[in-house]
Every structure is written in C-alpha cells, then in structure tokens.
Amino acid sequence: MNNTLLIAIREFRQIARTKSFWLTLLILPITFALMPLITKMVRPDLQQSIILIDHSKTGAGKAIAARIELDAQRANLATLADFAKDNDLKALAGKATWGQKLDWYPDAVVAKFVAEGGAEPALKAIRAKSPKLAEGLTLPKAAYRVAPTPQGLANLPSAALDKALTPYLRPPKDSGRKAIDYVLEIPADFGAQPVVHLWMNGQPRGQFMSMLQGELTRTLRAGFLETQGVAAPVAQIANRLEPAIAINRPKEVGGREKLLVQSILPVAMTYILLMSLIMSGQWMLQSTIEERSSKLIEAVLACASPDEFMRGKLIGTITIGLVMVATWVACGLFAAFATQGVIADFIRPALEPLQSFGSVAAILYFFLTGYVMVALIFLVIGAMSDSMQDAQGFLVPVILILMFPVIILMQAVISGSDSVFAHVLTWIPLFTPFAVLARLGTGIPTYEIVGSGMVLLAFIALEFVMLGRVFRAAILSGGGRPSFKTVARLMKRH
Amino acid sequence: MDALDVKGVVKRFGDFTAVNNLSFSVRPGEVFGFLGGNGAGKTTTLRMALDILRPDAGSISILGKEPGRGNAADIGFLPEERGLYRAMSAIDTIVYFGRLKGLKAADARREGLTLLDRFGLGAQAKSRIDQLSKGMSQKVQLATALVNKPRLLILDEPFSGLDPLNQGLLEDEIIGAARGGATVVFSTHVMQHAERLCDRLLLLAHGVKRFEGTQDEARATMPLRLTITSRATPDKLPGVVGATAQGTASDGWQDWDVKLEPGRNAGDLLEHCTSQGFALRRFEQHRASLHDVFVHIVGGAEDVK
Predict the structure, then answer these.
(1) pTM above threshold 0.80
(2) Which residue of chain B is at minimal alpha-carbon distance from A294?
(3) What is the DSSP string of chain B?
(4) Of B5, B91, B110, B200, which has the most beta carbons under 10 Å away?
C-alpha cells in the first residue's frame, strides 16, 4: 500500500473516532426520525370549523359548504395522484381521475373525481393490490369543516347573535367543547344588500377569506343577472364559468439549453457543501495542528514525502466529508422512498429532477471539486499553525470570505432572482461550486457550467502548486504563524 | 561503500548558512557521534541525509543511494523533537510507521509487540498514547524507529528529555543495534554519551567541521597532562611546555601539574626521568575527557555539557 493511502486511512480513522464526527453524522438522521413527531407537536390540528346561518333564499350558505367540500376533494385527489405516480399505480388506476398527475386540478376534474366515487374506490383498489402499500397512504384532513348549526341559533336575529355565539367561539375551558373558528350569518336581505356578518375566535386565514369572498360574489352576481332579466339557470351557468388554465414548462429557446433542477435540492446541496466543508475542514485543521505541535511531523516526513503527506491528508479528509454527505443523502433517500410522512412528502418531489444525467453529473462534479478546493486551503492553514488560536488568524477571514457571498447567493436563488451577483460568483473559482449548485435551481446555461468547471479545475491545479509550496515550507518551520506577506513570498518561491 | 557519505554540503536559510562545506563519512557497522552545540548544524545535516531538506550544494550518499523515501525501509529515525498521535494506541502507532517504511501490517505488528515486550510495555500495547507516561511514550517512539530492523539508525539528540532509566535503555539499544550489524549515527551535545558509545565522531561548530576521527585521535589533538611528584622542577624536562606547583612541598617533595607538547608520549618522558636520575615519587597520566577535547577543538564557544 503506498504512503498516500496509508496517511489517508490514518487520517480517516482519526477523524472517525471523534465524538464531533458522529454527532455531525447522526444529526440529520435523528432530525428525520423526529420530524414527524415534531410536526405533530407543532401543528396539532390544522382543520378549522365553521357554522353557517343562512337566512337568505340565495343558496349562498349551500354554495360555501359545497366549495369547502370541493376543495377537500381536490386535496384528496392531489394526494392520490401523487401516491399513484410515486408507486407506479397508473395501470391500477386505469382511466380513473386519480391516476392522472396534474400540476393543478380544476373544479371540473375534481367534480369528475367526486362523480367517480371520490377517494373510496381508489383506496379500495390500492388495498386490494397491497394492504401494506395502502397503509402508507394518508389522505389529508379537510382544511375546513362545516359544523351543524345549533337549533337555538338558526332563528336568532343578528343583534342577538353577538351574545349567543360567545359560548361557541370561546367555550369555557372546563366545558370540554372545541371552539368554533368562524360563524357566518347571511341575512335574509342578502342579494338586495351585500352585507353578511362573520364572527371569529382569532385571525382569519387568507385562504378562507378568499374562498368566502369568491362564493358570496358569485351569489351576488347571479342575483344581479336575474334582476336584469337573465334566466336563473343561465345566470347560474354564467356564474360558474371558470378558465381552464393549461400549464406548460417550455424549454429554453435560442440554442442555449439550460440545466434546470427545479426543486429545493440545489440550494440544499449548496448548504450541505458549505457546512460539511467547514466541519471536515476543522477536523483536518485540528489533526494537522496536532502533527505540527506534537513534533511528530519530522518522523513522518522521514518515511513519506511532503507531497504524499499532503495528498494523504486531503484524501482522508475529503473521504470522511463525503462519507458524511453520503450518509445524509442515504438517509434522505431512505426517508423519501422507504417511509411515508412529512419528510417523504418533502424530499420525494425534490429528487424528481435528478433523473437527468446532466444534473447528477454537474452536482457531483462541483461538489467534489468544491471539496478539494476548500480542503486544500484548510490544510495549508493547519500546516502554518501551532495551535487553533494561531489558525483562527487565517481561518476567520477565509470562512467569512466564503460564507457571506454564499449566503447572499442562496437567498437570491431562493427568492428566484437570476442576479448579476450570482453570474459573477459563478466565474470566481472560490465560489464557483456554490454558485453553480445554487443556480441549478433557476437554470444555468450549459456553456457556463462547462466553462466555470474548467476554470475551477485550473484553479485547483494552481492551488496544488502554490499552496503546495507553502505547505512544504511551513510544515517543518517553527517560530509561530507566518504573516500574509510571508505566505505570499512562499507561494512564489520554488 | 560507506553507510553515509557527505561531500561539500552547504545549506542556507536566507542569509544564514546552517551548514558550510561539510564533508564526512560513516563506515558500515560503526557508532558515529555527531557532536556540536545548539545551532551547530547537526539536525539540518541529518534532515538533509533523510531528504527532509535539500542541500544547496554538495552531495550526500546514504547506503549507496541518493537521499529519498526509497531508503526508508533500511533506515530508522528518531527525531529530536518528539511526539506521537495522542489518540492512537501504542501498537497501532508502531504498525503505522512500520507500514510507512514498507513493512507488511502483520510483520510490523509482530515486530512492534516484540519491541514493546522488550521495553516492558507489553501490557500497554493497546493503550492510547495519551494514557501513557512520558517515559512510556518515549519508548514507543524508539520502537517506531526500530520496527523495521534498520541497517542505518539515525538518532537526533536521542538522550534529550530521557530519564536515567530510559537513557540506559537507549544506550543498550544502540549497542545492540551495532552488534547486530547496523550503523548508528547519533547527534548529541552531551559528551558522556558519545564517550561511552562512539567508535568515531564528528565535531561541528557553526555549520563547519572541526574534527572527524576516533576518540583517541581527538584526544591526541590536546596537550598531554600529568601529575608528578618530584624534588626538582620538571619544566626543563624534554617536551614539557609548562609545570605548575600544586600545594606545598613536604620533605622537599612537590606535586606538579605538567603539560606536554601535543604529540609527546608520557612513556618517553618517564624513560627519560629514569635514565637521567630525575627522582620521582608519583607519575600519573590524565586522560582528557571528550568535553575537554571538544572545548579545546571548538574553542569553548559552543553550548556543551
């Protein structure tokens, strides 16, 4: 076995024996395992309840109840269609609506789904195929529930409702009753007058208010059309008209094909690269400082050349970093495909774009080169330092220079902007891996990927030459931390 | 073929010349002492022999080859500044260095365990270095240098920091290695160790060679000193360059500290006294210590013990 490999294995083993490595390695799987529990604790019940008191003859109350039911069915349909796609159940669904995955389910499609029997036939079919598979399917709880109108409230005048509703909106703590979130009273003259009354026990949801506004507006318009001589059925039809929005994602035109990974994955990879680099870089730094400060470097260099030593340490540290990342990715894949729940629902769509070879190749290339580029800097800092305190003088500026632009870049990408800043960072080798990984989310032209990838490779080759000189000169020298001027001089000297 | 052959070697660090036109050779199987004070250039020369540093001029041949890691399998090296990986076990440390020197893992482990047993550390083979005492760690480090049964053992200030017990152990190991046919080169500024162990030695001051040869040859560079007790003053005797009276005379007999010219033989002087009727009650020759020789040759400017 050659010396580089021996040094790499020793480095790997030393880091793998530290508690901080195992803590960092396990933090993500533990988070994944606890996430469903945490989610359940943080969001115990998202369903809200509503009491509808309709004194009018307009049918507005029924329309609102129907809308709530339709939206609940839409959520069921979306969940079933996602499940069918993830589990390859298209053949099982046949021509049923739940077998067709769409970006958005218009009312007409949802109505067809309801007409087919809703979720029940789908659940039955899935259970028949595999009861175990069916266990993994959980239909979402409806966002709203129409509660029965209490007998005593139905005939009360508006003025008396204020007082009468208090026990429903804010029931006494010892009553054991759950608070009603909304009470809507539609007065008898609704239509002639546009006023309705809404009582709440907290802040209203924007989505609820939009839904309410939409249904009540439709009722008012239908009434208005009828008063203008339009036949009632025609007015109802006019009121229910809605556009069918066809969703397309056209490819980039003009000969510049963009590599686009439209998910949270690129930003997540950028973040993982940054964090794992800082963690594994710190470990390598500590081990190099130990070798320098405990004076064992000379004994090693009597058997292995400084280049073998440098390469061995780099390989060992990069391997440990990649093992860490691979473990996280494996946990993510396990959570996505072998489990059901919040994490799986979150990760699975994020991994969909990875079916493209170009995306996978770009992510792997820039992840690996990013690791080598930054790890080399950490290694040389370790070679120049007798203690962590010494190292901080170099480390703090390096981490700040790396982190600030990368964080700004990630925010820009998350907000969806294709900024000049991101374009500029792409061509600065120190930031290239982060910029390219992050920009995969908004789309990055192929020529930029190839070009910046080549520039990055040339930069790493230059790093090996220049920082290699500093490493060889610094690793055996004493006398404390060299100045930046000395480092620059060492880079030039052969 | 010499085990180590250094010819006209120069090493500079900026404006400072650490080693200046140094030439010497170490013969196979001998114990060679590399003597000099702090900053004499001993460590720099040994680092050049091991290819840790490259000379600016001159040439070095080690075991018939140019310095380089290709020789690692035949060389054992104990650096002056010592340390080990704190989180590694004693045996793993020895195996690691054995493997860096080209041994197979099983061979390195077997030899490592043998050495640890020999050093009284068999029970601590699996203990982490940070759980061992300083003396134990020093033995482990010595084992890393010996694990490959080297043909050439290079020890840089091997006795510094060792307690008397470990100094004795190290002396035994040096003698044992030499008896086994290995060449031993060690640097020191403690003359007593060199006096006990070295077949030949090199005296170095400020990067320049001052002497190379055997201990007797080194002593021969110094004027011979005698203590004699006589009635007459000895300063007129042939070869005597100075005589100083010691204490007071008793019944006409006086003690004298006599210094001979370099190269003069004490036996010749005794024969002359006997044949010429120069009355003597005492004639005692003093063997110069290596420390005296060093101070005489180097001029007392170096820091030696």
Answers:
(1) no
(2) B83
(3) --SEEEEEEEEEETTEEEEEEEEEEE-TT-EEEEEE-TTSSHHHHHHHHTTSS--SEEEEEETTB-SSGGGGGGEEEE-SS----TTSBHHHHHHHHHHHTT--HHHHHHHHHHHHHHTT-GGGTTSBGGGS-HHHHHHHHHHHHHTT--SEEEEESTTTT--HHHHHHHHHHHHHHHHTT-EEEEEES-HHHHHHH-SEEEEEETTEEEEEEEHHHHHHTSPPEEEEEESS-GGGSTTEEEEEEEEEEETTEEEEEEEEPTT--HHHHHHHHHHHT--EEEEEEEPPPHHHHHHHHH-S-S---
(4) B91
